[in-house]
Amino acid sequence: MGSNASMNSKIRDSVNSKIRTMLDEDVASVLHSCQGKEGVIKIGIIGGTGFENPSTGLPLENREEIDMITPYGKPSELIVCGTIKDVPVALISRHGREHKISPTNVNFRANVYALKKLGCTHLVVATACGSLREEHAPGDLILIDQFIDRTTKRDNTFYDGYSLTGVGHLPVADPFDKDCRDIAMKVAKDIGIDLKNGGTMVTIEGPRFSTRAESHMFRAWGADLINMTTVPEAPLAMEAGLVHMSIACATDYDCWRGDEHVDVAQVIATLKGNAEKVTKLWTELIPAIAKHAKFEQVKAAQDVAKNNCMGGEQWVPFSKRSKADNEAKENLYARFAHPRILRI
What we know:
This protein is an alpha/beta fold. 37% of the residues lie in helices and 20% in strands. It contains 10 helices and 13 strands. Strands 1, 2, 3, 4, 5, 6, 7, 9, 10, 11 and 12 form an 11-stranded mixed sheet that branches. Strands 8-13 form a two-stranded antiparallel sheet. Helix 5 (212-221) links the parallel strand 10 (200-204) and strand 11.
């Protein structure tokens, strides 16, 4: 009994030390400045449903797995770093490699923050979705350019009052980068992949699918596609100053089309073909973005993130918070004070 108590105490002390060191990280500096080498394009990749191991099929070299903890908790999975055709990349599985994390429980902030901390300048994601339009058939790939937010339970900003104070009022009129979409369209044409440019994604809370009434309502609103993860991932990428784009992979017609309705079996059946096409596209798109991207655009994205805060953005190291700030300290520390979160 005494031996076990001593071991538990050592584990707890180790956890506490790691947490306190991590909580002293300058969150504002990470989010609002480039973390990699000046002028070097590094691309973060997030794979969703059907892409639980997003590096599968990619010509990834110099592979390294990194177990990270951020001021916002643990990312969904170990982050795989390496190079694709000499371009540095960092890949993460949105729902974990065994798809055990529901859309509501994905730690979007930790995922985006970790990729930014690792020096990523761009973010390219894949997301499975339902189609709300006849012209977007199951198996189609669409580059979305707008979203509608119907989520209700998610942490949707880095400005939480604990890690970062103030309020980030980011302009998100056009949330996805047009230049990256144009590059993707050219690459897709060159390699013979049918890719559609433009579409509005409505993101619901999930994990259930829509009712027929909801599906018809979303169509009436002008939505073209429906998923459970674009928000808050896209606005968080903007808060982090990442140039980003999203490839939507249609798997079904939701439930607006006659007597049809979506189910998991239907989604899985379509995903294999989608994954093969996206992997082929990523293989050529990553080096194309690195070749044609302008670093001035990266700096512009950083400026948007940095210059749209109100209320006195402030970051205070955990170790220097005053006793009067006990509530903030307790809320911040509560995110991490469990060995399972650190995987030790």
